[in-house]
Amino acid sequence: MAEKLSAVKGMNDILPASVPRTEKLPDSGLWQWFDTTVRSVMARYGYQYLLTPIVEPTALFVRGLGEVTDIVEKEMYSFVDSMNGDRLTLRPEATAGIVRAMNEHNALYNGPLRLWTVGPMFRHERPQKGRYRQFHQLDVEALGCAGPDVDAEMILMARALWRELGLVEGEHVRLEINSLGQPQERRAHREALVGYFEQHAAVLDADAQRRLQSNPLRILDSKNPEMQALIEDAPQLLDFLGEASLAHFDAVKATLAAVGLGYRVNPRLVRGMDYYNLTVFEWVTDQLGSQGTVCGGGRYDGLIEQLGGKPAPAVGFGLGIERLLLLLQELKLPVPDAAPDAYAIVPAGAPLPRVIATLEALRAQGVRVLQHAGGRDGAGSMKSQFKRADASGARFALVFGPDELAQGQLTVKTLRGDGGGAQELRSLADAASWAASLR
Ligand code: ATP
Ligand code: MG
After folding, report:
1. Which atom of ligand 1 lies at the shortest distance from residue 130's CA?
2. How far, in Å, is the centroid of ligand 1 from the Cα of 280?
3. Considering only Cβ atoms within 10 Å of each terminal Cβ, which end of the chain, N or C, has fewer?
4. Does residue 415 fall inside a structural domain?
5. What's the domain range around 352?
């Protein structure tokens, strides 16, 4: 036998529940449920769907995310296009590509845009539970909107999604918010911060030493336990915010309070990309170990201009779909049943074209029917067919016996739920009317 090939490390297949999986990753049924739910929530808020390429010029991310960020420093899958020498990168996040696209198409010319997309992102990280090299995000962006009402809208959309999926805010997921102020406020804070860390240079680890001049704010994000006390007492950005920034933050908080959404102000929440200003937020959970951030976002008023567009404010968030589905899986929350309504059993001698014509009529009525697929020598014993019917999770088995078919009938057997075990003869002629009863 030829040698089997494996997927790239950290990149996973998303498989149906019926396929045995080595790693306990969420099955494709959960993914589909998430997709359906997201679509309906986005429509409720008037957001429009878009897709942008998975590969972008490397320069887009270097300019967009900032040179001294984890992503640009060490996580990007970059390569040279051997055909023409272009420097390209598999997108590590979605915002930069969306802004690039909107700038390219002068999309903001007619006013603000509210957009969403879903798709794979790529980061060269150490694979572990909730952290992969190919992962998927829901990404939501509002471009051209300056007000704190839209910051709140972002947060509330995520809450609406939690509620649809059965997650309880405050219990399964918690909201943390912060304000990063404006560039000049951050500069003043940065100076104070550099001064403070220089005074305590002996306690800084190598990473922090390096960041002291390039990106001291990221030191606050350090997970090194030996630096936590130092970080705890560092000057806080919130103390450097001016009136306008504070008013913006207060307006967001007032809206959250008005809709009864609890939150914690976390002064150390800085987020990984350089483009953020004013409001930033994260939805976190305690159930996924150190990969606890399910969703993160904030305002990025400078990015559109920085990437060559006419200056316009914007706000958005990214949600890690694998982490969210792992959380749903962990909590064992009820998920709508993806099983077929009925399983069609085809005994030896049944006229297949006639059977298939009947199944087509049922499917046209919206019934989900899985046909037992025959081999070259027929469909297999009744016993093995019923076993498969059972395993499919279908509520009904449709048995197309040749004798009944000849009389324009078939047998409907209830496999599970109310009336399990019962069976009755139905007329093919009124397939449409009894189709409704199968749903
Ligand atoms: P973390 O601090 O966990 O590395 P991040 O700040 O790098 O997250 P963002 O860039 O804000 O993450 O991306 C938004 C969301 O995408 C995260 O909150 C998380 O749910 C998800 N995410 C980020 N990186 C990964 C990854 N390597 N694998 C799976 N999900 C990820
Ligand atoms: Mg990261």
Report:
1. 29
2. 15
3. N
4. yes
5. 342-438
DSSP state of 226: G
* Listed residues 290, 305, 331: the one ending a domain: 331
| Angle ∠(48,105,300) on CA atoms, nearest 5 | 65
Q: Is residue 227 part of a domain?
A: no
- 2 in a structural domain: no
Compute, in angstroms, the gap from residue 396 CA to the centroid of ligand 2.
47
Provide the CB-side half-sphere exposure for 99 (13 A, CA).
29
Claim to verify: residue 75 and residue 153 sit in the same structural domain: yes
Domain-terminating residue out of 273, 305, 331: 331
The pair of structure tokens assigned to 164 is: 């649809």
Residues in CB range of 403: below 8 A, 6 or more apart: none
Output the tens digit of pLDDT for each of the chain's 439 residues: 899 999 999 999 999 988 988 778 999 999 999 999 999 999 999 999 999 999 999 999 999 999 888 899 999 999 999 999 999 999 999 999 999 999 999 999 999 999 999 999 999 999 999 999 999 999 999 999 999 999 999 999 999 999 999 999 999 999 999 999 999 999 999 999 999 999 999 989 998 998 898 888 889 878 899 999 999 999 999 999 999 999 999 999 999 999 999 999 998 888 877 789 999 999 999 999 888 999 999 999 999 999 999 999 999 999 999 999 999 999 998 888 788 999 999 998 888 899 999 999 999 989 999 999 866 666 678 899 999 999 999 999 999 999 999 999 999 999 998 888 899 999 988 777 777 777 6
Q: How much is the pTM?
A: 0.91
| Ligand 1 centroid – CA 181 distance (Å) | 23
* Ligand 1 pocket at CB < 6 A: 93, 123, 125, 130-132, 135, 137, 272, 291, 293-296, 318, 320, 322-323
- Cβ-based neighbour number of residue 417 at 10 Å: 8
Please indicate, yes or no, if residue 319 is contained in any of the structural domains: yes
Distance CA 304, CA 107 (A): 12
CATH number at residue 63: 3.30.930.10
| Atom from ligand 1 closest to the CA of residue 92 | 10
Q: How many structural domains does the chain have?
A: 2
288 and 432, same domain (yes or no): no
Q: Do 358 and 320 lie in a common domain?
A: no
Q: What is the 3-state secondary structure (H, E, C) of 46-57?
A: CCEECCCCCEEE
